[in-house]
Amino acid sequence: MLEPHQQQVKTFLGNLILLPEAELSSFCADAQLRSYSKGQDFIRAGEICQELLFIHEGAFRYYLLTDDKDHTKDFSPEGTFCTAFTSLVTRKPSAIYIAALEDAEVSVWPGEAFTKRAETSLAWQKLFRLFAQGLYIRKEQREISLLADDAKGRYLHFQKTFPSLANFKDVEERIPQHMIASYLGLTPETLSRVRRELKKSS
Questions:
Q1: 60-66 and 69-76 strand pairing
Q2: Do residues 113 and 185 lie in contact, with contact meaning Cβ atoms separated by under 8 Å?
Q3: Does residue 178 sit in the same domain as residue 110?
Q4: In the prediction, which pLDDT does 165 show?
Q5: Is the same domain home to 107 and 185?
């Protein structure tokens, strides 16, 4: 019988695609539990990513450092997979950092646990494509929002994309405002104004 954390992964994958029961159970059973403390790195720029995470509790942030400036690229909340996808697939050093936004509990697999299955199984290949497509679509939608939306529109897009993070009773309990502002291409002051205006109109 699968442990609760393994069952959570099985349910998540089963809702995406029909996979052979034995293969799905085997993949879930291969998971190892790991804890991260707030601020702890999962991957650092320059390292080759060799692991895949599923987040049971907590959230992670993807970011870049350029000239000592911190640029937020993405977030992964609970109930999602997390990895430096390009580095994992190409086996080249990651350009990004991924760190825990808060204390987190995750399941961990070696990257090859997924990629090797995708090499031999049509169902796993389809799942791999679904993940890649999902990442691309979210990336394109964010780029469109950055180019076409005003500050309010960008924040509303953020809320829609990350409801479990943005709709928390006090979002800053989970994500510091400057990180959200960086993700949205806004100053913290502009983001504060947008949030005040939305709060007044709600």
A1: antiparallel
A2: no
A3: no
A4: 84
A5: no
List the chain pLDDT tens, one digit each, 202 residues.
678 888 899 899 988 888 888 888 888 888 899 999 999 999 999 999 999 999 999 999 999 999 878 999 999 999 999 999 999 999 999 999 999 999 999 999 998 888 888 888 888 899 889 999 999 999 999 999 999 999 999 999 999 999 888 765 555 668 899 999 999 999 999 999 999 998 888 7
User: Is residue 188 located within the same domain as residue 115?
Assistant: no
Q: Does the CA dihedral 108-163-196-145 come out positive or negative?
A: positive
The secondary structure of residue 198, as a DSSP letter, is H
Pair (161, 83) in one structural domain: no
Instruction: Tell me the residue range of the domain where 16 lies.
Output: 4-135
| 8 Å CB contact between 124 and 19 | yes
Please check whether residues 12 and 53 belong to one and the same domain: yes
Number of domains within the chain: 2
Cα–Cα distance list, 28 to 3, 79, 97, 118, 195 (Å)? 9, 14, 26, 15, 40
Residue listed under structure tokens 């997924």:
114
Q: Which residue has the tokens 């994958």?
A: 13
Closest-CA residue to 153 (of 168, 141, 171, 137):
141
Classify strands 104-110 and 69-76 as parallel, antiparallel or unpaired: unpaired
